[in-house]
């Protein structure tokens, strides 16, 4: 899985925003607010990856039990899929 669109991610005072760029800006008319962990997920999803690799990468950055991180990542990935932002 990976992001369906190309985004430029910009740091803001209270987090990050992901803005579609290039031809994708014509297809997706929205700006996505990101916190630190969703920013990390977006960065990982720029390339083809798996759910397990996303969880493992975040576990290297945050001290959270594996089960909780898995739940957080799965919930966020499901929302991205529901919003049509991921390729299978």
Features:
single chain, 88 residues, alpha+beta, three-stranded antiparallel beta sheet, two-stranded antiparallel sheet, 4 helices, 5 strands, globular
Mean pLDDT: 95
Low-confidence stretches: none
Compute the separation of the termini in Å.
Answer: 5 Å
Task: Tell me the number of helical segments per DSSP (H or I, 4 or more residues long).
Answer: 4
Biggest beta sheet summary: 3 strands, antiparallel
Strand content: 15-25%
Architecture overview:
Helices cover 47% and strands 22% of the residues. It contains 4 helices and 5 strands; from the N terminus they run βββαβαααβ.
Offer a quick outline of the entry.
By secondary structure, this protein is an alpha+beta fold. Helix content is 47%, strand content 22%.
Secondary structure blueprint with pairings:
Layout: E1 2-3, E2 7-12, E3 15-20, H1 24-27, E4 32-34, H2 36-44, H3 51-61, H4 66-82, E5 86-87
Helix pairs in contact: 3-4
């Amino acid at each position: 899985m990976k992001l369906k669109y190309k985004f430029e991610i910009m740091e803001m005072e209270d987090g990050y925003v992901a803005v579609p760029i290039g031809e994708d800006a014509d297809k997706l008319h929205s700006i996505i607010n990101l916190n630190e962990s969703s920013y990390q997920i977006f960065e990982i999803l720029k390339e083809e990856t798996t759910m397990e690799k996303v969880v493992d990468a975040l576990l290297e950055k945050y001290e959270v039990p594996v089960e909780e991180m898995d739940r957080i990542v799965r919930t966020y990935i499901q929302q991205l899929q529901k919003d049509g932002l991921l390729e299978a």
